[in-house]
Specification:
Blueprint lengths: L12 E3 L12 E5 L13 E3 L1 H11 L4 E5 L6 H10 L6 E5 L2 E3 L6 H9 L14 H6 L4 H11 L6 E3 L1 H15 L9 E5 L8 E6 L9 E6 L2 E5 L6
Parallel strand pairs: 4-5, 6-7
Antiparallel strand pairs: 1-2, 2-3, 8-11, 9-10
Helix pairs in contact: 1-2, 5-6
Catalytic activity: tRNA(Gln) + L-glutamine + ATP = L-glutaminyl-tRNA(Gln) + AMP + diphosphate
Family: Belongs to the class-I aminoacyl-tRNA synthetase family.
GO biological process, one term: glutaminyl-tRNA aminoacylation
């Protein structure tokens, strides 16, 4: 009846008959949901739950370690139970604390809601801290890896300021990005008491590693400064 659409949502569920180690009984395996699937359309009106599919997908795909945040720790017993009762290869589920970032959201569910409501454009919107957004902003992958290594993995939930990630980016760019000067809004300035002799200065391409090269900058009676730096 569930499969054939003869019951309403919430009227019936298919459960796994067991008592788990924390005392939870008969976790739900399938429930009724009258919603189109992005691949199968309206073919099905019953859908499996996380408890039923997570461990089976991991086992079929030969996942060695299933890494989850701490809120999934209570699902570990059902994960192991279903694999064992079906005599399937059972991966290891391992939980870690969520890393939150100040002034933004990192939850996929919350980001998806922001996209659906048109508040941000997509997953690569530069205001987000998704990997695609960071790549669009030009964050080097090495810097992101260094940031993750610096934060470490712990069971405790933690919150970090975005400036910590930005500092990791600067550390990488200091060693990989040659220095160039640019004036975005140029304002011409003439030095009236200049002695008339053009001066030549050497500037390091990489301030942290001066042996990697230098370039020369000429200085004379006409220079250009940022318009925002000028005040009457």
């Amino acid at each position: 009846d569930m499969k054939n659409g003869l019951l309403e949502e919430g009227e019936a569920t298919l459960r796994m008959k067991c008592t788990l180690e924390e005392g939870k009984q008969d976790p739900v395996a399938y429930r009724i949901k009258y919603a189109p699937h992005h691949r199968t359309g309206d073919t099905w009106c019953i859908y499996p739950t996380y408890d039923f599919t997570h461990c089976l997908c991991d086992s079929i795909e030969n996942i060695t370690h299933s890494l989850c945040t701490k809120e999934f720790q209570t699902r570990r017993s059902s994960y192991y139970w279903l694999c064992n009762v079906l005599d399937l290869y059972c991966p290891v589920q391992w939980e870690y604390g969520r890393l939150n970032v100040n002034y933004t959201v990192v939850s996929k569910r919350k980001i998806a809601k922001l996209i659906d409501e048109g508040i941000v454009a997509d997953w690569d919107d530069p205001r987000l801290f998704t990997l695609t957004a960071l790549r669009r902003r030009g964050f080097p992958s090495v810097a992101i890896n260094n940031f993750c290594a610096q934060m470490g993995v712990t069971g405790a939930q933690s919150t970090v300021d975005p400036t910590v990630l930005e500092a990791a980016v600067r550390d990488v760019l200091n060693l990989t990005a040659p220095r160039h000067m640019v004036v975005l809004e140029p304002l011409r300035v003439t030095i009236l008491n200049f002695d008339g002799k053009i001066k030549d200065f050497e500037v390091c391409d990489y301030p942290m590693e001066i042996e990697k090269g230098k370039h020369r900058v000429a200085f004379d009676d006409v220079i250009y400064i940022e318009a925002s730096d000028f005040r009457e």
